[in-house]
Every structure is written in C-alpha cells, then in structure tokens.
Specification:
Blueprint lengths: L1 E9 L4 H14 L3 E7 L8 E9 L13 E6 L2 H6 L4 E10 L12 H8 L4 E5 L1 H8 L5 H10 L6 H12 L4 H18 L4
Parallel strand pairs: 1-4, 4-5, 5-6
Antiparallel strand pairs: 1-3, 2-3
Helix pairs in contact: 1-6, 4-5, 4-7, 5-7, 6-7
C-alpha cells in the first residue's frame, strides 16, 4: 500500500499542523512516510503545500508524480485547483468552502466550487462554520483533516492522539476545541449533518 496526499492552503491556515498529525499517525501504525513542503510567501498569505507519501514499504522520493495523488486536502478552495493535475483518475478532493481572497482577480467562488466538483470524488466542507461551532475559527484545518480522515488509511484514534499531542502545550480548551473540530469534519464527510 502506498498512499499519496497533497496538502494545500495559504500561510497561517495550519497546513504543517495537518502534516504533523498525519505523519505521526502513520508512524504510530508502523508506516513509512516522506514529506516535502513548500512555504513560499506563507507569512503573507502565500501558497503553502506539502506532499505526503505513506507506505508499508520504504519510499525513495518525497514528491508525488503528476496523476498519482490519491487525495488533495485543501484548507482554501482555489489552492485545491492548483494541484488537480496531480490527482489520480479516481482521486479524492476535500476542501474547505471558505475562500481566502488575497488577490484582486480571485475567481468567482461558484466557479471554483464547480471545478472542484469535477473531481471523481469531492467534498466541500463548511469548515469555517464547523470550526466556529467547535469553538474557534482557527480550527478550520482540523475540520478539513477530520473530513479527509474518512478517506485516509489511518485509524481515527491515532489522528486524535496526535491532535492532542500537537496542541497539549496550549491547554485543555485548545485541545478539546481541535478534537471537536476534527469530529465535526468527520461527521460532515460521513453525511451526518
């Protein structure tokens, strides 16, 4: 089993936090992983992306070839489209519906949603609303991770364990908010809303 995943978003959306949780969950399950990340102008709202490759056997390159991504997980819908050429013919796209409009010629969001829905399997998550319900808009990334976790070859308890590890220094309230955001994302992906 090899599973290729592209994480996408803009600076400040917690893309590398998502990568940490997935990487650690994979290690806990005895899998190999390689990660490559690009930060760009991330501190100014620029593009951030990471390639994650999970496998039962050793991996020799962190980069995912075009047409080989099993899943694109994006916290920003326009950023999801940037990586469509990497998606497998039966690939999955999970994205927040919440745009981060940081350029003057940002396309109409309905056009972006329509393009995302052209993927073989796609889910646009109301990540901002669910994160707010969980207790913090900053938890949008964990909502999207929760939705994507339904498709990832990792156990739910490992995601939750490493969300707790990631946020433990910020206190129980932050940990619980992020765990709730993850759960709400999973429920959204399963159609429980």
């Amino acid at each position: 089993m090899t599973y290729n995943l592209i994480l996408a978003g803009v600076g400040g959306q917690g893309i590398l936090s998502i990568a940490f949780v997935i990487d650690q969950a994979a290690l806990a399950e005895g899998l190999y992983f390689l990660q490559s990340e690009v930060h760009g102008m991330s501190q100014r709202g620029g593009a951030v992306q990471a390639h994650l490759r999970l496998s039962e056997t050793e991996i020799h390159s962190p980069l995912i070839p075009q047409g080989e991504a099993d899943l694109i997980l994006s916290v920003e819908p326009l950023e999801a489209l940037r990586y469509f050429s990497y998606l497998k013919p039966d690939g999955v796209v999970i994205s927040s519906r919440s745009p981060y409009i940081n350029i003057p010629d940002y396309p109409p969001v309905e056009d972006i949603y329509r393009e995302i829905k052209r993927a073989p399997v796609s889910l646009l998550v109301e990540a901002d609303k669910l994160a707010k319900e969980a207790g913090s808009l900053r938890a949008e990334n964990m909502v999207v991770l929760g939705a994507a976790s339904v498709y990832l070859p990792l156990r739910e308890e490992n995601f939750k364990n490493f969300i707790s590890v990631l946020f433990q220094t910020k206190g129980d309230k932050v940990v619980n908010t992020n765990l709730k955001a993850f759960d709400l994302g999973r429920q959204a992906a399963k159609g429980e809303f």
